[in-house]
Amino acid sequence: xxxxxxxxxxxxxxxxxxxxxxxxxxxxxQARGFKITIQKFDPYINIDPGTLNPYEHGECYVTEDxxxxxxxxxxxxxFTGIHTTRNNSVTTGRIYKTVIDRERHGxxxxxxxxxxxxxxxxxxxxxxxxxxxxxxxxxxTEVGGTIGDIESAPFMxxxxxxxxxxxxxxxxxxxxxxxxxxxxxxxxxxxxxxSVKELQGMGIQPDVLVLRTExxxxxxxxxxxxxxxxxxxxxxxxxxxxxxxxxxxxxMQKQGLDAAIMRKIxxxxxxxxxxxxxxxxxxxxxxxxxxxxxxxxxxYDLQDAYKSIRESLNLAGIYNDVKARxxxxxxxxxxxxxxxEKLEGMAGIIICPGFGLRGIxxxxxxxxxxxxxxxxxxxxxxxxQMMVIEFARNVLGYKDANSREMDEQTPHxxxxxxxxxxxxxxxxxxxxxxxxxxxxREGSRAWxxxxxxxxxxxxxxxxxxxxxxxxxxxxxxxxYEEKGMKCVGINPxxxxxxxxxxxxxxxxxxxxxxxxxxSTVLHPHPLFxxxxxxxxxxxxxxxxxxxxxxxxxx
Length: 554
Fold this sequence. Notes:
By secondary structure, the chain is an alpha/beta fold. The chain has a nine-stranded mixed β-sheet, with helices on both faces. Strands 5-2-6-1-7-10-11 form a seven-stranded parallel β-sheet, with helices on both faces. A three-stranded mixed β-sheet has the order 16-17-20, with helices on one face.
């Protein structure tokens, strides 16, 4: 069949969950046997999110082919298990740069370059490219921002044109918000009506409406929305608050969202897929009762800044039959005087990734405390580097050990910049990015995590995603090995250290790569699984008794 295109837009307010709805649609269609991909079009002018402050945009997600993207691609991969690429993330900046570069090259033969048709044509080309290149059944395109935003107008015009060109091969799903007014004790559909009217004014009639709501909408209200917005009743579904985002695909399936889309496109609906592995996962999630408290030592006090790490911990907890209760611990506030208090009650600690000098001393102090008190610890990227620096200062005896990133004059640069990075002056997209191989030392804790049943060399070589510029300095490798910090993961091409661990501790592992990018709902990452398993064993009801506000009960 021809590739079908689903456009997901949002109205009324931002942050309604277009990414979750897009991922849910993808999962439901995938369960019916269709080959799908999901792409994100963002209206901001940055080339990619790589240089954006996490407070501005949440975490920067990295694809296997080494592209820095929006965090919604993490939802796409976790829900569906697909591997996204640079083609799945497009910004206004990339669109304009491509058009301007072509104009400078003379490709337009002297024509006047305009938003319509040149910018919109480039948007359309990228929206269609995924389907044309890979023979996909469905391409789901989420457009960031909110209807009415000035910067999203070219994307809406491109969708309008594609809807006309593709006919029944294209469907528009519009997500809006239905607010509840407590004073009037009423749900209000007027914002949705205005949002749809705005969309219609751009020449786009939505085929399906997803109503984001905190209260259940009865059929009368759904009928009212359908009547005022010219949408079939069966195509008006609601997205209520759920205990977990992973309940959303099931809710959408029960309301027939995937069936409504298929009928609009003209595909026989058939039987509803059972989605047994997904329901088994939700069953384990509901049955997990015991809490395991994990501290996230970092400097970004924002949930989305560590989104993939949080989700990876939650998923690993569920598969270990526990609830991972996560506590952010600001590394800027950690000192030697209060570290015991800050980390009290934690069954395990994540030393989070990041960039820059701010908050690193707190991470180093936390790493020393967890190492000397044998608390399960997982350092990721910069977190691993802080574990390496702490070990150099307090075990190797190099009190002035540091990273070149933090101190260019340090005499003991146990973390140093890669040789090929020294001449780079630009920031965006210039780091070691994407998937690289890593050879595991057999018998190490990392090897056992990837080979939980002890299979010989089943996973002797792994591939994981990176986002960093500085590396472990191999000049010091022998000293680390002699004193007990083993370099158990090595990149075979460049002989770079990927994983360090201390064998005689419960679980003390640092990875230069980002394992959180590879964790999915049906396949949680083995390192997070091993870490949570050890944290659960380290946890006890007496030392992890918490009050509702998150403080330790005495």
